[in-house]
User: What shape does this take?
Amino acid sequence: MKMGFLLRGISKSQILPAHIEKRISPSNICVGDERLFAHEMERCWGPCNVIALENLTILGETWVQWRYLRIVNNYRSYHRSHRRKRVLLGDLTHLFHQHVRIDEVLWVHDEWSSNYFHWLTDVLPKLQA
Assistant: This one.
């Protein structure tokens, strides 16, 4: 696996190339609901990447690399900039909570991973990869 360095403390590597996936309809789908998921039966995927971050502190939805004086919270999409600022301010309160140190963590994530369907069809295959 070849690593490319984006910034000091952040590296990126591709583990799967772009591809097209054809899916079969789930056996538990309700009659009449097929049309709701028709657009997901054939999916074009971009490359699947792993981004490694060193010396990271997680404060709620905000990630901080103190060593590089960097806030890394652009892994999430915000629809409005004032939401980003409000989340950041709220996350700073986590500085006053008890901390747990974990040396290595795998965080599998995408834009829609809080949705059950996307968790099963988008996120878990990335974890398997």
Notes: Strands lie at 4-7, 10-16, 19-22, 42-45, 48-53, 57-59, 62-65, 70-72. DSSP finds three helices and eight strands in the chain. Residues 53 and 113 are 20 Å apart (CA to CA).
